[in-house]
Amino acid sequence: MLVRDLASTSDRCAALGFAPRPLGRHPWGTCMQFVQFDVCSIELMSLYDETLIDQHAVDGFSFGRYIRDQLHEREGKADQCSIDL
Description:
Elements (H helix, E strand, L loop, with lengths): L5 H10 L3 E2 L3 E2 L4 E7 L4 E7 L15 H11 L12
Antiparallel strand pairs: 1-3, 2-3, 3-4
């Protein structure tokens, strides 16, 4: 689930009684946090440093850029992405 303000979204989930897991940071500028439910979880994802977005591109694809572009359009479910290897 893409969100612009990960800390606020995580706090709201905790206030509702769900269990946010520790924050994770990726080297390409995105951050994520799982929110645990009884039998499943969702992954909240956002950006923490846009200067890192293109430093880890592979064959022109940057996951950080993909997430940034999705967040510019809207928050919510991330569109699927796939890379042909």
